[in-house]
Amino acid sequence: MHFSHVIRLPDESTPSEIRNNPRFYPYFKDCIGALVGTHVCAFVPVNIQGRFCNRKGGTTQNVLAAITFDLQFSYVLVGWEGSAHDSRILSDALSRPRGLRILEGKYYIADVGYGIRNGYITPYCGVRYHLKEFSDQGPENAKELFNLRHLSLRITIERVFGILKKRFRVLDADHFGIFKLK
């Protein structure tokens, strides 16, 4: 098999999933995907288990992935301890010689765990964000509307990990009584 069939170079055009949806275009026209973190079960030697203990008490790896809107992985970084913060893992990914690269003028959507930095946008803090918060009434202002649309894009991306964890149960920390995607 030739590598051109396996590896795709980043595409600079607006993804069709955004371009063809008036809820997202033109607002997210330069968005190329999402940064998503998840925890997967880790089976590590007893002498280092403390570092892999996550905030819920399980032994996990914290995995960072950049995922495109056609549900493809464009970057994955594994091996970080479950106790590691998302922003620390992202800094590592961006600093590696063959690490995560974000094209000039493009960005990923990310959750608030990644902090603020060029190359990705997070929802407004302190503003309604989760879908259940919008169930009784829709967004009341521009920030809430942005957060609702941001969440709608992130949910489509997080399906990738849901699919993987369903197919490969060993990846699903929740299957072992730990917890789900963060």
TrEMBL record:
Its cofactor is a divalent metal cation. The keyword Hydrolase applies. The keyword Oxidoreductase does not apply. It comes from Gossypium arboreum (Tree cotton). It is found in: Nucleus. It comes from the Eukaryota. This is DDE Tnp4 domain-containing protein. InterPro entries: HARBI1-like, HARBI1_dom. It holds the Pfam family DDE_Tnp_4. Its main location: nucleus. Keywords: Hydrolase, Metal-binding, Nuclease, Nucleus. Residues 50-172 form the DDE Tnp4 domain. Belongs to the HARBI1 family.
